Amino acid sequence: MLDWTDRHCRYFHRLLTKHALLYTEMVTTGALLHGDVPRHLHYNDEEHPVALQLGGSEPADLAQCAKLGEQWGYDEINLNCGCPSERVQRGAFGACLMAEPQLVADCVKAMLDGVQVPISVKHRIGIDQSDSYDFVRDFVGTVSAAGCSTFIVHVRNA
Ligand SMILES: Cc1cc2nc3c(=O)[nH]c(=O)nc-3n(C[C@H](O)[C@H](O)[C@H](O)COP(=O)(O)O)c2cc1C
Question: What are the structural domains, with CATH classification, of the chain?
């Protein structure tokens, strides 16, 4: 969660259980490619297993950021297709990506091509009026065909 699950919060969560996969706050590709990488990617070793959650929609940028995440030792890279914020939608990522399953598939494929760690996708059960079973089934089907085998589902539409 943005502005919440920073490395201090995750360290606390790790004290609560050894049996959870922890996720970073969403880090945008722009923040990583043009910003302070250590500030965004530094974490405590005790956090493992820990996944880096990325926000973006450019396959090449996401591939580069996934590589960075792997180099920093993250155990999984997660693509956020669930954030409903209007600020995020203007950047064409987050939940609005559910309307573009082929683009998400291309992003996942580009990331998988460059790293060994698993790529997962967080999404919702739908967006706006598109919340039928068929809609979410087709989204998952298209993205899994690109090699994503783990989907984290936020059980509310955006
Ligand atoms: C302040 C805030 C920040 C959030 N940041 C993220 C985030 O960075 N990545 C993410 O996957 N979900 C994020 N979420 C969504 C939560 O992970 C979670 O799915 C959601 O809050 C619970 O469901 P609800 O908001 O529909 O009640 C955020 C939610 C809030 C309230």
Answer: 7-154 (3.20.20.70)
Q: Which atom of ligand 1 lies nearest, measured to the CA of 122?
A: 11
Q: Per-residue pLDDT tens for 20-44?
A: 999 999 999 999 999 999 999 999 9
- CA distance linking residue 20 with residue 105, whole number of Å: 27
Ligand 1, residue 80: give the atom nearest the CA.
Answer: 11
Whole-model pTM: value is: 0.94
What are the strands of the beta sheet with 22-28, ordered from one edge?
Answer: 22-28, 50-55, 76-81, 119-124, 150-154
Q: How many C-beta neighbours within 10 Å does residue 38 have?
A: 7
| CA–CA distance, 158 with 143 (Å, rounded to integer) | 19
Residue type, 62: L
Active-site annotation holds for 83: yes
